[in-house]
Design a protein that fits this description.
By secondary structure, this protein is an alpha/beta fold. Among the domains are: about 45-115, 2-Layer Sandwich (Histidine-containing Protein, Chain: A), CATH 3.30.1340; about 120-190, Histidine-containing Protein, Chain: A (2-Layer Sandwich), CATH 3.30.1340. Helices cover about 40% and strands about 20% of the residues. The chain is built from 5 helices and 7 strands. The chain has helices at about 5-15, 45-65, 90-100, 120-140, 165-175; strands at about 70-75, 80-85, 105-110, 115, 150-155, 155-165, 185-190. The strands form 2 sheets. Strands 1, 2, 3 and 4 form a 4-stranded mixed beta sheet that branches. α2 packs across α3. The longest helix has 21 residues, at about 45-65. The protein is globular, with a radius of gyration of 16 Å.
């Protein structure tokens, strides 16, 4: 990876996790995100995804300012996942529209729940559960675990990544068997049968 890409990627990640950068948007980084060296995405695509996360989070913060919400933004191959809680269907729809219109976004999975924002303790439990799922993936030979992003919200596991159908099925099965997991949602980009998993066309550099 070029040194410039390393510096930019580090800066974007720092912006995502620093307190106060996006006070209405919490948890903008997927639990157990793949490492740069082993991720199936190109370095450029990884940088694009981090940039999209920051951009969408900031746009949602501005659009939904003043509302009591908890929204997490994650992106894989320009596919944006929204999770968390908002007060009503109108806010959920607005969040989805803002994300869909954001620059470079390919598609949006709006998984926001109509509920009061989760507590700090609940989010901590979700992070712990996500780490357990990651550990289960590490111990499963059939899974390219560093190519799968795990997002955990209210004990529901969302799986994102570029995988084969077998990897998708095994990952979902393994995640579902981790104690505490309520539901598993597959949001994979699945490679055609007989081919290796590859990045989405048009996203590599």
């Amino acid at each position: 990876m070029k040194a410039t890409h390393k510096r930019i990627l580090a800066a974007v990640v720092a912006a995502l996790v620093l307190p106060g950068c996006a006070p209405l948007i919490i948890g903008a980084v997927a639990a157990g995100t793949a490492t740069v060296a082993t991720d199936r995405r190109s370095t450029g695509t990884q940088l694009d995804d981090k940039t999209i996360q920051v951009r969408v989070a900031n746009e949602l913060r501005d659009a939904l300012r003043g509302n009591d919400i908890h929204v997490s933004v994650n992106s894989y191959e320009r596919r944006v996942l929204l999770t968390g809680e908002v007060a009503n269907d109108a806010l959920k729809a607005q969040a989805g529209t803002v994300a869909a219109r954001s620059k470079d976004v390919r598609m949006v999975n709006n998984e926001l729940t109509i509920a009061t924002p989760s507590t700090f303790g609940e989010r901590t439990d979700d992070n712990t559960l996500g780490a357990r799922v990651r550990a289960a993936f590490v111990n499963t030979r059939e899974i390219a675990f560093n190519s799968i992003d795990i997002v955990t919200e209210r004990r529901t596991i969302y799986l994102m990544g570029a995988v084969t159908q077998k990897e998708a099925d095994v990952a979902a099965h393994v995640a579902s068997r981790v104690p505490g997991v309520k539901q598993v949602v597959k949001l994979f980009d699945v490679a055609p049968a007989g081919s290796a998993a590859a990045p989405v066309p048009g996203t590599t550099r």
